[in-house]
Amino acid sequence: MFGGRRKRKAAAKKTVSFGEALETSVVKKGANMAVLTTGSALVGDKGPSHMSVDIAETSDIEDGMEMLGSGDEADEETKASGKDSSVDQLEDRIKKKHAILTKRAQEGKVPKIVKGKHLYRPAASVMRMTEEEINGMRMRMQDIKVKGVECPAPVARWSQAGLPGNLLAVLDHMKWTKPTPIQSQALPVILSGRDMIGCAKTGSGKTLAFLVPMLRHILQQEPRRPGDGPHALVLAPTRELVCQIGIEFQRFESVLGLSHVCVYGGADVAYQIGDLKRGTDFVVATPGRMIDILTTNAGRVTNLQRCGYVCLDEADRMFDMGFEKQIKAILQALPPKRIMVMFSATFPRSMEGLARAVLHRPIEIVVGGRSIPAANVDQYVEMITTQEKLGRLVSLVQGALLNSPQKL
């Protein structure tokens, strides 16, 4: 009793925080129905309005669970105030640490983030292209339209983007012979250090369009030290999309010597906290769970001080699902000098104001028109049981990977 804190190995039931509950409630909106589409799947079932998750507590993560297990009292306070307490806590912590980070930066203790011209070395053939040749190339690539000043020319081959040999070797091994239209224009823009808005239909290769520049960015940075946060962050609206992006990253990480962590609700947060504490190069997360992680244990689980690359995938869906406040709070925790990109299958004009509020002089790339759902996507509705959901999802993903892995 008096010999120190006893390790608790039994699993304990804890109530998830507001951020995760919001995320889970959105995913579970369609009761007893699975909507299966090309490249993604949302599976819903009936569930109580107050979700709970089994979390295996061990001594090394107990302190990190205080926010995720705040209990009924915190829930009632959140309901009474009408605000997301996790978001408010993150905003308060950012304000308190701003002066400390500024002082560290002046003393040279915060590592410099390498970006922009240091990353992009276009091939000589690309640099010799005239404006007329560039416009003709964009026209042939599904009529690419760009908006913004000093937009780099598109590339026709991976080798023209100035990528390192080990990254080119993985692309060649995967039989990805040449970039798709959105990849051809997005790579030089992002590698040049520019913020970007990318709009292309489902199945056009948007995932690889932000993963390849992200990998190049990570490889250029200084090695991680103990306690350092990730070099890159991708936010996605659903756990299914988070896992899909993680699968794509796995194709590269063993060859390049990198690591990643998927952070999302509905899974054992203890393992996610453990992986983040050990350190990682890349985090892909849903906004609700990422807010929880950043506020857990007074922010000591991980930090975004070295995160110089940020991507909002399916950005329109995240804002439609009510994650605007969470996203803005997360962005406040990032360093001011960063590369930030938004990708989406549709990009309604109502999103432009929000996008330009968080992006700096962005270049907008539109492939095949904007705000138009892909005409070649068929939607199927299947009535399945809870036990059948995982197996059906796995079979769909495996089939898509075998048929056209480049377009995921």
UniProtKB/TrEMBL annotation:
PROSITE patterns: HELICASE_ATP_BIND_1, Q_MOTIF. Keywords: ATP-binding, Helicase, Hydrolase, Nucleotide-binding. Residues 65-89 are annotated as: Disordered. Residues 187-365 form the Helicase ATP-binding domain. Residues 77-89 have a biased composition (Basic and acidic residues). GO terms for molecular function: ATP binding; hydrolase activity; nucleic acid binding; RNA helicase activity. Pfam families: DEAD. It is an enzyme of class 3 (hydrolase). Its EC number is 3.6.4.13. InterPro entries: DEAD/DEAH_box_helicase_dom, Helicase_ATP-bd, P-loop_NTPase, RNA_helicase_DEAD_Q_motif. Residues 156-184 form the DEAD-box RNA helicase Q domain. A motif (Q motif) lies at residues 156-184. This is RNA helicase. It comes from Kipferlia bialata.
